[in-house]
Design brief:
Blueprint (H helix, E strand, L loop, with lengths): L7 E4 L3 H12 L4 E4 L3 H10 L5 E4 L2 H6 L6 E4 L5 H11 L7 E4 L5 H12 L4 E8 L1 H7 L2 E4 L3 H14 L2 E2 L2 E2 L9 H30 L4 H11 L7 H9 L24 H12 L4 H14 L1 H10 L12 H33 L6 H7 L11 H10 L10 H24 L4 H13 L6 H12 L22
Parallel strand pairs: 1-2, 1-4, 2-3, 4-5, 5-6
Antiparallel strand pairs: 6-7, 8-9
Helix pairs in contact: 1-6, 8-11, 8-12, 8-14, 9-10, 11-12, 12-18, 14-17, 14-18, 15-16
Bound molecules: 6-phosphogluconic acid.
Length: 474
């Protein structure tokens, strides 16, 4: 009797890979898994009872167990491991097979892999998955790109396993080439900024407002019922209730104030600089994580610059909370605006042909940056399809015209009391620059021409000009 064949393969059976396999199985798909680590394969095989799943430790047996053309998904750490797995697979698979990289790979690496494998008629799909472990198990947001024919083969399965919003799956084709991983990178950059701005708000509420963890929980839980409703606000509320294992005190107070990062936020900043997109809220969030890691240096500097960060006893807590809710709303929208505007420009630059309305739509559920406000953002792109930046959208501009005032006050209060708000203040500065009819860049042009004859343009006549500037004689 011929051995049973499986329609999908999954390489990498860590929590994300294992959960995606179980999710696919729930929707009627048969999956063979492969991992070198026997703990991971044993774990999946234990959960496979009564399901169309089998985990292998032998890669050739795994490949052999797949129906042809094969669809092999990878959930392994980004970087050289992906190349190593692909190199091993290449000796075992054949033309027309599809490799789907579901990790957080850099879009440039993905493009290289697409081009290299295309020479052997193997389709390589870069696919972003967001939603963490729970998302992978019960419905993530999925961002596939690349070869359309390969995508079409995957689409029914992706639609089945993705999160749903009003019955609509949170997955769609993101565009050609490495578009899937590019969109995921932008998602993560926005994630960094939103997390940072929530943390800055916590800093203000805790130090300036004097709120304890229970009050902080109540504030975030309340905010999650309104226009800030989002996954990140929701988990923040929960964090303030989590007791330490030893039951003494709350866990949040025992965690070191140094944030780690795997790099996707920094990749977005690097590409923004390379392609010319302003995303200061995200840049500031990346720098803020780096600054947080300089803990010893910060402690030394704190000894030198003993600027008071005292609680304001005269503060009306409720007014302060209301002000912060309004400021955070403006800051979140202005951050999505930067990320989506960058995505639109990059889609032209890299010729991805990404549909921004679709991106906003599939981020409404399953992913880490899912938020109620994405509904308005999606509607803005739908009703004003030629819009370059959602800040110019009708409904959004009305809301931001009001809420920007609160963001302004919050940044002032923090500056006065020496509380750092890197992302919130960068967001306000982006907004103020973006809405400025005139900026002092004429002076920069004059300076460049003065010291380097770099030329300048004029407002009163067409052309490129250079002046022999008069040096000041001392
Ligand atoms: C997601 C997340 C996830 C990412 C974490 C950690 O969408 O599910 O973006 O892909 O791994 O956010 O990223 P950092 O380690 O860079 O914070």
């Amino acid at each position: 009797m011929q051995d049973k064949k499986f329609s999908y393969g999954m390489i990498g059976l860590g929590t994300m890979g294992c959960n995606l396999v179980l999710n696919m199985s729930d929707h009627g798909y048969s999956i063979a898994g492969y991992d070198k680590n026997t703990k991971q394969t044993d774990n999946l095989n234990e959960q496979a009872a009564g399901k169309n799943i089998k985990a292998f430790n032998e890669i050739s047996a795994f490949v052999e167990a797949l129906t042809v053309p094969r669809i092999i998904m990878l959930l392994v750490p980004a970087g050289s491991i992906v190349d190593a797995v692909v190199a091993e697979l290449k000796t075992l698979i054949s033309a027309e097979d599809i490799i789907v990289d579901c990790g957080n790979s850099h879009f440039i690496d993905t493009q290289k892999r697409i081009d290299q494998l295309a020479k052997e008629h193997i389709h390589f799909v870069g696919l972003g998955v967001s939603g963490g472990e729970t998302g992978a198990r019960f419905g993530p947001s999925i961002m596939p790109g690349g070869d359309v024919k390969a995508f079409e083969k995957l689409a029914p399965m992706l639609n089945a396993i993705a999160a749903k919003v009003n019955g609509q799956p949170c997955t769609a084709y993101m565009g050609s080439g490495a578009a899937g991983h590019y969109v995921k990178m932008v998602h993560n950059g926005i994630e960094y900024a939103i997390m940072q701005m929530i943390a800055e708000t916590y800093h203000l509420l805790k130090i300036h407002g004097g709120l304890n963890n229970e009050e902080l929980h109540n504030v975030f839980a309340e905010w999650n019922k309104g226009r800030l409703q989002s996954f990140l606000i929701e988990i923040t509320a929960a964090i303030f209730l989590q007791k330490d294992e030893d039951n003494v005190g709350l866990l949040v107070d025992k965690i070191k104030d140094t944030a780690q990062q795997k790099g996707t936020g920094a990749w977005m900043s690097q590409d923004a600089m390379a392609t010319g997109s302003p995303i200061p809220s995200i840049d500031a969030a990346v720098s803020a994580r780096i600054l947080s890691s300089m803990r010893t240096e910060r402690a030394d500097a704190a000894e030198i610059y003993d600027i008071e960060k005292e609680q304001n006893s005269a503060i009306n807590k409720q007014d302060f909370i209301t002000l912060l809710e309004d400021a955070l709303y403006a800051a979140f929208v202005i951050t999505y605006a930067q990320g989506l505007a960058m995505l639109q420009d990059s889609s032209d630059f890299y010729k991805y042909d990404t549909d921004i309305t679709t991106v906003a739509s599939i981020w409404r559920g399953g992913c880490i940056i899912r938020a109620a406000m994405l509904e308005d953002i999606m509607e803005t792109y739908k009703t004003q399809p030629d819009i370059k930046n959602i800040l110019n959208g009708k409904k959004i501009s009305t809301a931001i015209s009001t809420s920007q005032k609160s963001l302004r006050i919050v940044v002032q209060v923090a500056a006065k009391h020496g509380i750092p708000l890197p992302s919130l203040s960068a967001t306000l500065n982006y907004f103020d620059s973006y809405r400025s009819k005139w900026l002092p860049a004429n002076l920069i042009q004059a300076q460049r021409d003065f010291f380097g004859a770099h030329t300048y343009e004029r407002i009163d006549k067409e052309g490129i000009f250079h002046t022999e500037w008069n040096a000041v004689i001392q």
